[in-house]
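I hope you will forgive my troubling you with a question about protein structure. The record follows directly beneath this note:
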Amino acid sequence: MNDVQNLIGQRVLFIAPMFFGYEKLIKAELEAKGAEVDYFNDRPDNGFWTKALIRVDRRLLARKTDAYYRNIIESTCSKIYDHVLIVRGEAISLKMLRLLRQAQPKAWMSLYLWDSMNYNPNARTLLDEFDHVFSFDRSNVEQNPKMQFLPLFYGREFERSAQWQGSPVYDACFIGTIHTDRYKVLEKVIDSLEARGRKVFVFCYYPSKQLYRLRALVDPGFRRFGRKYVSFTGMTLAEVVDRITESRAVVDVNRPDQLGLTMRTIEAVGAQRKLITTNADVVNYNLYNLNGVLVVGRENPVVTDDFLYGEGEPFNSAVRKKYSVSAWVDQVFQ
């Protein structure tokens, strides 16, 4: 495979979810390194029901997704790509992936999993078709010798946070989608901080009004929490950067069975903001340090003022460089 320094003039076919603009970060970084990039959404459309049915079982929309990927293959077959990068691989079928390989026999094909395979079983059927497979989840890598471990990344926009010299508006912020028991844990963190007069910014995204109403109907606690914090419109990346910039610390609540570090965790590193997380596996990463990272329990999350107001930069420059989108691209295309 070519050295990453030789991406100038390289052609990349990039297929990834449209997810809070992260696909744009990767595309922009590839182009900044000299690559010519053609990007396609990994799903036929970004509607809720399309995403939901593919998530439940991609076979429910097999005809639609196969037609979508066949169109991608046919519309790009006149080009010779050096690389094909697929992120997540939730929607593409094994049949379509093999047709893509046949259409681009000279391309180096890579898969990146930014979600655990527990939530993406289709990826298991695709692994052997790729030259490289990367995952953000260390437990998945330990179970699959073909995989390489590669944590998530932060975008260049977070340099603005790291260089900001203003006074914090918030002591902590949470920005994310509400799933599993996240709202219950988050509510405890908020209550703990606000009881001491600390100011917390909270933005909770929920992808479907219909499912929200159903969950609120059967879960009074969720209904009470949702009235105050849930939005059905996502934040732009620029807005996320603004709120993190204004905060002393970033709150992260991982899925109960997830080891991989979330994007928000890595963004805290890029923004030079303290990290409050329920993910105990963070201690196994080189970003972990007592000044920058506080691990709290899900049942009784305690955030001390000593941590919030402790002096010194949370993360050193070498650690921040390792988790940048530039370093991520270098690793995938090395």
The first helix runs from residue 22 to 32. The radius of gyration is 20 Å.
